[in-house]
């Protein structure tokens, strides 16, 4: 999942349906995922989407979301359980499993105990675990103090990698988390420039990459966007250089890339 050549990763997050339903521009997961897969180092999905919408010929590593239990109709999104067994994750041949933790919410303990159980099972099967430091509807908690706490608590439980949000003083979050961190994008930002700045700053501060969804596939030029992000993550491009990659890819009609069988 993390490319040895650069020590970094561009993960494509397409697991939103597990609580958001048919999210804008992810209504038909196969249509959204297929053109982007050649440029993703990892694809993050649920088992339902993996089975129904991802051609098994693709050899992109899969990050399987295994937590759920609440939908956007509930005020409290933190009431999650493990929804997919470790055995099924192994059977589906995924590279890692992911679960949300809700530090500071009503179900903090439940989500942390879920994470501990998942790490224990992961150890038995040799399956890496990602903690997702969800902030749910409480977006005001997206600050370094809160995220550093949630990331560190997850690392102490034993996860191999953490996904969190970029925030001011993000290096504080990175420095306090002794495992690799990737950043989510969150809801679609206003401009391409804003997205590329977020990615650039996160990498500068020590993130090993992104696990990003809406800011890629809700853009009118998703292939151009993921390639621009790749240039920052894997080639240390500046925001200006990445914008050029975006423009170059925007005017090139994306070729249909067939899965490679290795
Ligand atoms: C959904 C998730 C997403 O994978 C995560 O939020 C990344 O996607 P985005 O960049 O759209 O925020 O965990 O629950």
Please, could you describe this protein's structure?
This protein has helices at 17-20, 29-33, 47-53, 86-91, 108-125, 144-157, 170-175, 192-204, 214-217, 222-235, 239-251; strands at residues 9-13, 42-45, 62-65, 67-68, 81-82, 96-101, 129-133, 161-165, 181-184, 209-212. It has eleven helices and ten strands. The mean pLDDT is 94. The longest helix is centred in the middle third of the chain and has 18 residues, at 108-125. Strands 1-2-3-6-7-8-9-10 form an eight-stranded parallel β-barrel, surrounded by five helices. By secondary structure, it is of the alpha/beta class. The protein has a single domain (9-251), classed as Aldolase class I (TIM Barrel), CATH 3.20.20. Strand 7 (129-133), helix 6 (144-157) and strand 8 (161-165) form a beta-alpha-beta unit. The chain starts with 8 loop residues before the first strand and ends in an 11-residue tail after the last helix. Helix content is 40%, strand content 16%. The structure holds ribulose-5-phosphate. Ribulose-5-phosphate binds at residues 13, 15-16, 44, 132, 184-186, 211-215.
């Amino acid at each position: 999942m993390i490319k040895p050549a650069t020590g970094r990763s561009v993960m494509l997050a397409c697991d939103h349906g597990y609580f958001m339903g048919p999210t804008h521009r992810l209504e038909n997961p196969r249509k959204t995922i297929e053109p982007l897969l050649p440029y993703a180092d990892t694809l993050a999905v649920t088992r339902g989407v993996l089975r129904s919408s991802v051609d098994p010929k693709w050899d992109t590593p899969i990050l399987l979301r295994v937590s759920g239990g609440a939908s956007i109709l509930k005020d409290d999104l933190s009431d999650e359980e493990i929804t997919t067994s470790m055995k099924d994750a192994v059977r589906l041949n995924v590279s890692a499993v992911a679960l949300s933790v809700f530090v500071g919410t009503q179900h903090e303990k439940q989500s942390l105990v879920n994470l501990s159980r998942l790490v224990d099972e992961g150890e038995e099967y040799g399956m890496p675990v990602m903690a997702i430091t969800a902030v749910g509807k409480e977006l005001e908690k997206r600050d370094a103090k809160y995220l550093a706490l949630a990331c560190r608590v997850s690392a102490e439980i034993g996860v191999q990698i953490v996904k969190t949000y970029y925030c001011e003083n993000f290096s504080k979050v990175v420095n306090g988390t002794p495992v690799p961190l990737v950043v989510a994008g969150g809801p679609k930002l206003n401009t391409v420039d804003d997205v590329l700045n977020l990615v650039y700053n996160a990498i500068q501060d020590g993130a090993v990459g992104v696990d990003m969804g809406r800011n890629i596939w809700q853009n009118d030029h998703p292939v151009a966007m993921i390639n621009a992000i790749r240039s920052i993550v894997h080639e240390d491009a500046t925001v200006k250089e990445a914008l050029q990659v975006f423009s170059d890819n925007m005017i090139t009609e994306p070729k249909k890339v067939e899965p490679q069988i290795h």
